[in-house]
Amino acid sequence: MRNSFTALPVIALFLAGCAATPAATDAESAAVVEPIASPVATLAREPAVPQQAGDAYYLNAQAAIDAKIAARGLRPAKNVILFVGDGMSIPTVTATRIYAGQKRGLDGESYKLTMDQLPYSALSKTYSNDAQVADSASTATAMMSGVKTNSRTLGITGEASYDNCASIEGHKTDSIFEIAEQAGLATGLVTTARLTHATPGAAYSKTPNRDWEAYVGRGGATAGSCADIATQFIDWSAGDGFEVAMGGGRSAFLMGGAEDPEYPGKTSDRKDQRDLLADWTAKPAHKLLIDREGFEAQDFTSEDKVLALFEPSHMEYELDRAEDPAGEPSISEMTRAAITRLSQDPDGYVLLVEGGRIDHAHHAGNAARALEEADQFDQAIKTALEMTNPDDTLIIVTADHSHTLTISGYAKRGNPILGLSSTSLDGSPDKALDGMPYTTLGYMNGPGACTASEEGFDCSRKDLTDVDTTDKDFLQQSLYPLWSESHGGDDVAIFASGPGSELISGVMEQNEIFQVMGRASGLVAGPEGE
Asked: Is residue 450 part of a domain?
């Protein structure tokens, strides 16, 4: 990957990689949908009782969604697409709306994103089993398995302990993807992050440490006998496995010591001699893609099972994608390819699409890249809506957690969202009590509080009078310094359309999203096992 950040910003970006419309009221929702036959009968699917069904969080979410079904009825969904904008806080949605409109020469404040136009919306409470402000692993597990678990763990309940393999036995969960595969549906993953990263990892892995992407024991002292996340992907035994999975993360799959095919000198992150990519391609009709040329040559209407790993680590930021020597597709292009492949299965499918790098740019305190990533994520939602039937496909758009991005000041209508705050007709910037201008967008914490030089760190606020704050490399100022800007604990938005979307309303627990997907698709049983 290429960028022109230096010193503290470079470290911030590195660490970053490691790390709404009104809700419909009950009365309005009840008036929209008449109760009809259960999706189990309509779709001829046998609903599963997952192994985590006795968990208290699971039972509470199940009861909440069952009450909505009893009041409103339920339309059956043949297909389910879950869009996760990683770190896409409500301020991020608002700022992206303005950014997207202004970028297109339109009025930003009144512009409508694709997600804004979905008919149902709600708020999601993102706390985890052990944290007020959660991470992406626990929140992804909540959405995909229906339980709130401990931070930095994937695919296990809160009864298991971080970093302890022995503790996960008896506490593993079945994700919506595993349940779908066992029922004979097709499944797919699309992400701009590593395929072994927290959000996609929750679809298939069970681990007490999300950092064990390429080898067990990385950063941990009590590893035990767990398999690393990349190995779990290749060895995933649910049904016949993923039909398509696209993103970054080649280094976790290459044999230890092996050189990356695109970047000479870059070697595998693995510590063993197992070549996971060779294991994948050794299977019948299993294809591996590593660049744009291969992506464009692949026939996604075929029955090939496709694994696409376009970068050793995360994929390029959209603003930097043109600089990739081998080229890589956009999130919209990957979404189109994935839906094309999954639509070949007449039994239906479940697909995850993650805008993973929204989160990474926020961690770096870099609003320009975050908003561009969010805009591209919204374009992927538009692609999905164009390619699917609203009568048989449930689409849910949400975030896993928030960030500390704020929109402040009293900027006039039409002021550049990435610019200096200005209320004056002549465009002169507003001044703070220190006599210096300030931007509309800022962060509570992060690397933008300081600048680095050979003499050390200078954490005094900088005068932005002659600074181009709209530049893609500009880091928004923050109140207090951190190497990596933190997550936020505020609620995030949920937007939805299609059958089952009527269950998205009010203020919801994040793990209720699993119940909505499972019950609407007929894949997951209700309280009485029906």
From this structure: no
Q: How far is CA 467 from CA 74, 88, 266, 443, 462, in A?
A: 54, 27, 35, 18, 10
Q: Angle at CA 41, nearest 5°, toward 37 and 46?
A: 140
Percentage of the chain modeled with pLDDT above 70: 91
Q: Which domain holds residue 185?
A: 8-19+81-407+486-501
Amino acid of residue 86: D
Of 136, 145, 175, 521, the active-site residue reads 136
Mean pLDDT of 157-185: 97
Q: Looking at the domain assignment, is residue 455 inside a domain?
A: no
Dmax over CA atoms of the chain, in Å, equals: 71
Q: Strand 507-509 vs strand 186-194: parallel, antiparallel, or unpaired?
A: unpaired
Secondary structure (DSSP) of 382-425 = HHHHHHS-TTTEEEEEE-S-EE-EEE-S-PPTT--TTSB---ST
Residue 350 lies in a domain: yes
- What span, in angstroms and rounded, lies between the C-alpha atoms of 22 and 20? 6
| 350 vs 345: CA distance, rounded Å | 11
Does 448 map to a domain? no
How many helices (H) and strands (E) would you count in the chain? 15, 17
Structurally, the chain folds into a number of domains equal to: 1
User: Torsion-angle region of residue 477: left (phi > 0), alpha (psi -120 to 50) or beta?
Assistant: beta
pLDDT in tens, 73-125: 999 999 999 999 999 999 999 999 999 999 999 999 999 999 999 999 999 99
Give dist(CA 47, CA 529) in Å, integer.
Answer: 8
Q: For 293-303, b where at least 16 C-beta lie within 10 A, e where not — what string?
A: ebbeebebeee
**Using one digit for the tens of pLDDT, what is the confidence trace for 478-499?**
999 999 999 999 999 999 999 9
| Residue 484 is a catalytic residue | no
The CATH number given to whatever domain includes residue 295 is 3.40.720.10
Does residue 431 contact residue 424 with C-beta atoms inside 8 Å?
no
The DSSP element (H or E) to which 202 belongs, if any, is none
Q: Regarding beta strands 120-125 and 492-497, do their DSSP bridges make them parallel or antiparallel, or are they unpaired?
A: antiparallel
- A 10 A CB-CB count for 261 gives 15
